[in-house]
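ingest -> validate -> predict -> emit
validate: passed (alphabet ok, no gaps, 245 aa)
predict: started
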Amino acid sequence: MWLGLAGLSLIANLLAMPVISFVSAPSAALALLLTPFGMGDVGLRLFGYSLELVLAIAHWCVELAPAKLSTSSAMPGSSLALFALALALVTTARGAGRILLCLMAIVPAVWLWTASPQLMVHWSASGEVFVRAADNGMQRFGFAEGDGLAPLRYSALEVTACGELPCRLETPAGVIVLSEGGDCRAAPDAVLVLTLSDTTGDCPNTYRWTEVSKAGGLTARRVDSGLDVQVGTACRNRPWRQCQS
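emit:
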């Protein structure tokens, strides 16, 4: 389980919740009560104005946040559980010791988050490639023609022009090459080569769009030994649903 962190989402929710609680919800109730008397439009108009205000808050927070704001690694499920435990402890425990109990959950949660593998490359089913640049920000490249969806956490990123293929991209993990095909040995220093068509040469770090698109995408994370490349999505058994490949 991996969770993304949306930029300024907390501020957006704090600003929008009073509008929803004190304007949107009462307006919806007012519309329901007035509808039998033919005056439901009054409540619906107020309800519509409130939703426009909520959307304005959301757009304002999106514009205010840096375009490339993203965490270096997604939050693992273990960190989320520990953060939830810390919140439960600080709200239910009594005395000065509750702060210490809260920190005992927060410290390992932060450590697990920061120690988790750092996302370097994601080739989504949409055909777009998301690459972590040398400045630790994410870049979005339109590379292949796909029919899937791009990751929601990077949906606000503008598409960057890669230029003429092959395209060399510098990342904290090394050089990533986007290629149309041909001899994959033309980039011997590349830690990962993504190609649109078949290649010649024996290159174990080369992945083709035909294989990646069938699997639903490719994700490469930085680990101590180099890059951990996963083609497709991890399939885990659930009590209510067996894992299906």
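The mean pLDDT is 80.
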